[in-house]
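Re: [ENG-882] Designed sequences occasionally contain unexpected residues at chain ends

Forwarding the minimal case from QA. Structure tokens:
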């Protein structure tokens, strides 16, 4: 609500959050927690974490790479979901928002290709994120770092295409 008020009043915002860590409660951090990041920052975070996964794959640490890649596919799935809220639906509705921003509907135009890319991207993430049990006979390898990077870029490109069309 504070962020919404600041935006409405054109006030500069300084993101901070207070968390509980091993040293105790009340630890301040300047960066937002994952759950509060806008989609652009989520993608930046995933790309940064991808670097470590890429390094694991290059070093031949396949088990560690696969664990990290599956984790990143989970984050990527969450980023797709946030992109639906922020980009595709232009922040018309948002989880836990008090109101519906009906004036933002004037630029919402959803093309069949938007949905197609969304469906492909989210399905790919769902296949690899933790929490989905695989059949023992399915020995499909976890996508390599290059393919994971392509999947991250697919979200970036999807967002850019929608924004270009609407500008």
């Amino acid at each position: 609500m504070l962020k919404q008020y600041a935006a409405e009043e054109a006030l500069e915002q300084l993101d901070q959050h207070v968390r509980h860590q091993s040293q105790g409660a009340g630890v301040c951090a300047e960066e937002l927690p994952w759950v509060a990041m806008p989609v652009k920052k989520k993608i930046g975070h995933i790309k940064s974490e991808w670097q470590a996964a890429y390094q694991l794959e290059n070093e031949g640490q396949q088990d560690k790479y696969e664990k990290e890649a599956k984790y990143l596919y989970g984050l990527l799935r969450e980023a797709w979901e946030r992109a639906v809220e922020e980009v595709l639906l232009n922040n018309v509705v948002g989880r836990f928002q008090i109101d519906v921003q009906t004036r933002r509907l004037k630029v919402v135009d959803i093309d069949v290709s938007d949905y197609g890319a969304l469906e492909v991207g989210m399905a790919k993430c769902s296949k690899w994120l933790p929490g989905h049990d695989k059949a023992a006979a399915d020995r499909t390898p976890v996508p390599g770092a290059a393919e994971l990077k392509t999947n991250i870029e697919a979200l970036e490109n999807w967002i850019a295409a929608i924004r270009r069309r609407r500008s």
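QA comment: On inspection the terminal residues look reasonable. The longest helix spans residues 62-88. Proposing we downgrade this to a documentation issue.
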